[in-house]
Design brief:
One of its GO terms (molecular function) is GTPase activator activity. With 148 residues, the chain is an alpha+beta fold. The chain folds into two domains: 83 residues, Rap/Ran-GAP (Rossmann fold, 3-Layer(aba) Sandwich); 34 residues. It is built from four helices and four strands; from the N terminus they run H-E-E-E-E-H-H-H.
Length: 148
């Protein structure tokens, strides 16, 4: 699972810089799970970040120094997950852990739902596959080779 932060991406000054900036941002929004932190009372538009998937939106809004309102929006068909669901008030002492765990569980539920489209792999298996591919691409004949 990767968490892109669009506001921390560099902005290019030249036309080629703008293209580079655009290319870096092209995948933002094309994720299973979106976490949105909002400080206003306006309703969050679920189409703000268009993309191919966008199955789960976790919207977090501070109420005061001790509490946050969370809203979890889920597309139909996604298997249930938690610990956060629907609309809840969450203590500031557990908001970070609750959102992180909900993101991980939501991402897993979405992978299961979309397994025919994107495939499903356990994270450690996928990491090993990527490491092996990288080793095969970068290794010279004299260097070590990974077992296939």
């Amino acid at each position: 699972m990767m968490i892109p932060e669009g506001d921390k991406r560099p902005k290019g000054g030249s036309s080629s810089g703008n293209f580079t900036s655009m290319m870096k941002k092209r995948h933002i929004g094309n994720d299973f799970v979106h976490v949105v932190f909002k400080e206003c009372d306006e309703e969050y538009d679920l189409q703000t970040l268009p993309g191919q998937f966008n199955d789960v939106h976790i919207v977090i809004q501070p109420l005061n120094d001790l509490e946050y309102r969370t809203e979890v929006h889920v597309k139909p068909g996604i298997p249930p997950f938690g610990p956060l669901y629907g609309r809840q008030i969450v203590s500031s002492s557990v908001i970070s852990e609750s959102v992180r765990l909900t993101c991980l569980n939501a991402n897993l539920a979405c992978q299961v739902f979309h397994q025919d489209l994107v495939g499903f792999a356990i994270n450690c298996e996928e990491r090993l596959k990527q490491i092996k591919q990288l080793g095969l691409r970068l290794a010279t004949p004299d260097e070590w080779k990974l077992d296939e």
